[in-house]
């Protein structure tokens, strides 16, 4: 019932935001470089993953005079290093991490010095860990994929000169969560009881040519309850992210 209520709210919000769209709109592109420290632990197994991930990200935004905006966010790592400890054995692994999301929202640019925005949409995040096993031709793969509906809020407040503090948070209603651990070939348990959220703090600086230099420090958490089919159940995935970007 909770998911149905939140999805109904998201659909209503999307329709209201789309109705405010006007023909006069502006397009913005924000490429960025990011660093992510990833950790995952399981309360039901002797398992821990720790890694450093370096990301390439891009946001494409369309903002109209009617206060509606649309944002497409994409990201994928270009290099990483990580170790996992399982059953008291530590091993080096390769990590691939990516995300994609579409958000639609409304923005208020007139009530105070700064802006205020609300949004919903649809998002996906995926992480794959690959480990070579001595004596076995096929690598051992661990996967975590989450599809979610975001509900977010952000404030941008004038600080000094051309700089603005940015603070925001997002609750993520996880619609489906897939996990596959330790090379299990036929088990892709779907998680049904999950908690996910994100919070961030940053600063934007407006240059003389109207470009914006952006910085963001954020924290994400994905909490997964036990599933009987999981080899490593009841996991908690945490991401600490730092991004530097330029908005054109």
Index terms:
single chain, 248 residues, mainly beta, ten-stranded antiparallel barrel, 11 strands, 7% helix
Q: Can you give a write-up of this model?
A:
This is Outer membrane protein beta-barrel domain-containing protein. Residues 1-21 form the signal peptide. Helix content is 7%, strand content 70%. The protein contains one helix and eleven strands; from the N terminus they run αβββββββββββ. A ten-stranded antiparallel barrel has the order 1-2-3-4-5-6-7-9-10-11. The chain is elongated. The mean pLDDT is 80.
Topology:
Blueprint (H helix, E strand, L loop, with lengths): L1 H18 L5 E18 L4 E18 L3 E19 L2 E20 L5 E18 L8 E21 L2 E18 L9 E2 L2 E13 L5 E13 L10 E13 L1
Antiparallel strand pairs: 1-2, 1-11, 2-3, 3-4, 4-5, 5-6, 6-7, 7-8, 7-9, 9-10, 10-11
How would you sum up the major sheet? Answer: 10 strands, antiparallel, barrel
- Helix percentage: under 10%
What order do the SSEs take from the amino end to the carboxyl end, as H and E?
HEEEEEEEEEEE
Instruction: For the record, give the distance between the C-alpha atoms at the N and C termini, rounded to a whole number.
Output: 42 Å
Number of continuous helical runs: 1
The computed structural class is mainly beta
Summarize the structure.
This protein is mainly beta and 248 residues long. The chain has one helix at residues 2-19, and strands spanning 25-42, 47-64, 68-86, 89-108, 114-131, 140-160, 163-180, 190-191, 194-206, 212-224, 235-247. The longest helix has 18 residues, at 2-19.
């Amino acid at each position: 019932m909770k998911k149905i209520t939140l999805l109904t709210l998201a659909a209503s919000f999307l329709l209201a935001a789309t109705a405010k769209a006007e023909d006069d709109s502006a397009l913005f592109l924000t490429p960025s470089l990011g660093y992510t420290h990833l950790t995952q632990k399981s309360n039901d197994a002797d398992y821990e993953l720790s890694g450093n991930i370096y990301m390439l990200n891009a946001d494409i935004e369309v903002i109209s005079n009617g206060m509606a905006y649309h944002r497409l966010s994409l990201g994928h790592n270009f290099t990483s290093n990580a170790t996992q400890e399982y059953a008291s054995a530590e091993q080096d692994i390769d990590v691939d991490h990516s995300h994609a999301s579409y958000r639609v929202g409304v923005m208020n640019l007139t009530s105070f010095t700064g802006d205020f925005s609300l949004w919903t949409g649809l998002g996906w995040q995926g992480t794959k860990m690959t480990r070579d096993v001595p004596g076995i031709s096929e690598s051992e793969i661990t996967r975590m994929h989450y599809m979610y509906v975001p509900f977010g809020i952000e404030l941008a407040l004038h600080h000094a000169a051309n700089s603005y503090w940015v603070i925001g948070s997002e609750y993520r209603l996880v619609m489906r969560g897939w996990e596959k651990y330790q090379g299990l070939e036929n088990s892709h348990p779907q998680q049904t009881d999950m908690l996910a959220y994100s919070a961030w703090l940053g600063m934007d600086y407006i240059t003389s040519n109207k470009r914006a230099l952006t910085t963001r420090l954020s924290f994400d958490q994905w909490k997964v309850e036990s599933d009987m089919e999981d080899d490593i159940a009841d996991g908690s995935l945490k991401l600490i992210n730092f991004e530097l970007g330029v908005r054109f």
